[in-house]
Amino acid sequence: FFFVAGAYVVGTINPDLYKFPEDKSETDFPDGSIGRLWFSIEYEQESERLLVSLIKVRKLQPPADSCSPFVKIYLLPDERSYLQSKTKHKTLNPQFDENFVFQVSSKMLLQRTLKFLVYHVDKQKKHHLLGQVIFPLKNEALTEDNKLVIWRDLENENLEPPSEHGDIQFSLSYNDYLGRLTVVVLRARGLKLQEESPAVGVYVKVSLMNHNKFIKSKKTAALLGTPNPVYNETFSFKADQTELDTASLSLSVLQSNKGES
Description:
The chain is 2% helix and 50% strand. It is mainly β. The chain has two domains: 33-153, C2 domain (Immunoglobulin-like, Sandwich), CATH 2.60.40; 167-255, Immunoglobulin-like. The strands form five sheets. It has a four-stranded antiparallel sheet, with no helix packed on it. A four-stranded antiparallel sheet has the order 6-5-8-9, with no helix packed on it. Strands 13, 14, 15 and 17 form a four-stranded antiparallel sheet that branches. A hairpin with a 4-residue loop joins strand 3 (36-44) and strand 4 (49-58). The protein is globular, with a radius of gyration of 24 Å.
């Protein structure tokens, strides 16, 4: 080392040793991608305010060459009111950096779901839906000192009408090694609630049976006041591989106060 004006120079820094891991969220897109949306959420306990920052959208796939996108933000189950971003003109990669506030009590917070709808405005001022993001808040640790920055791929809106009594979406997987059957209850839609009231809780009961004999059941949280609840809850059942041919699952959609849906 050598001495220069009261300071010791003991070596140089190799910048390659201090590089941050590359953020691939803007470069790695799945096949068939229709876009990706970034946002952040934070909850203020004292004022009971949910702070949502709409950051950006990338790789939009509009119906025409040019794209003028904007975003509507809902806090479900309320689908009548929404907050809306400014329109960004002639870009497939809009940068929004806009902040929005929803008033919601801490008791109700984890039963709510954020819904982002991304639209394109054409020259005739018609709105075309490009994709959506559905984000339940129940699995998030929302505190004032914990601002979560999140990205999600856009999904197409399911335009197929629900069946007479509604539909439920779920997935199944089986682990041979652990002998475990995993059920993910994703969402339901178009449910015919017996009582149209915000106080009506809707939940899904998952029952495992063998030879039509009841083995075990588990249920989701009850979500209030919506015919289109989003659950994203995972349940596991022990089931030997030799029992799978005679095992069956029953998924029932129930209302927590008055009977079944």
